[in-house]
Amino acid sequence: EFWLVSHGGIEPFDGDLDDYQRYLLDEAKRAREDLKASLKSTKEPVAQPVPVVSAVRKTPEELKRLKRDLGKLEQTILDLQTAKHALEARLTTSLPPQLIGELGRELQKLTDALDTHEENWLLISEQIESAAG
């Protein structure tokens, strides 16, 4: 008997390991397509404000603050990645289904937080580059 942990829940999985592998490949493909679609949709709005940001000259104090914020974000991202990897490793062990569901939800929260921090990192990096250029 197999259990499927995904999308913040747990449910019985009807199939064998080959079916599960196909399911994982399909999910990975769907996730890549979703990511590509979201990147395409966010590229246009992000591309428009960049010239405005580059037209405004940053003072040395603002640039210093941006670099400090970038360093803090990098540390937070590393901490979130470490926590995510530890949680993923824990999910590979034999656990009760209820705990797997809880850990899956926690993993989703970590992933969402990581995505948000990475987006902020990109925005601040762009601001630093435009101010330096």
Structure description:
- With 133 residues, the chain is mainly alpha-helical.
- The protein has one domain.
- It is built from 4 helices and 2 strands.
- It has helices at 17-47, 49-55, 60-91, 97-132; strands spanning 2-6, 9-13.
- It has a two-stranded antiparallel sheet.
- Helix 2 (49-55) crosses helix 4 and helix 3 (60-91) runs antiparallel to helix 4.
- The longest helix is centred in the last third of the chain and has 36 residues, at 97-132.
- The protein is elongated.
- The chain starts with a strand and ends with a helix.
List the helices and strands and how they pair.
Elements: E1 2-6, E2 9-13, H1 17-47, H2 49-55, H3 60-91, H4 97-132
Antiparallel strand pairs: 1-2
Helix pairs in contact: 2-4, 3-4
Descriptors:
133 residues; 4 helices; single chain; two-stranded antiparallel ribbon; mainly alpha; elongated
Q: What percentage of residues falls in helices of 4 or more residues?
A: over 70%
Q: How far is it from the N-terminal to the C-terminal residue, by CA?
A: 59 Å
Q: Helical region count?
A: 4
Q: What is the rounded Rg?
A: 20 Å
Biggest sheet record: 2 strands, antiparallel
Q: What are the secondary-structure elements, in order, as H or E?
A: EEHHHH
- Average of the residue pLDDT scores: 81
* Structure summary, number of beta strands: 2
Q: Would you tell me the structural class of the helices and strands?
A: mainly alpha
- Shape descriptor: elongated
When the domains are counted, the total is 1
- Outline the low-pLDDT stretches: 43-55
Strand fraction: 5-15%
Biggest sheet: strands side by side, in what order?
1-2
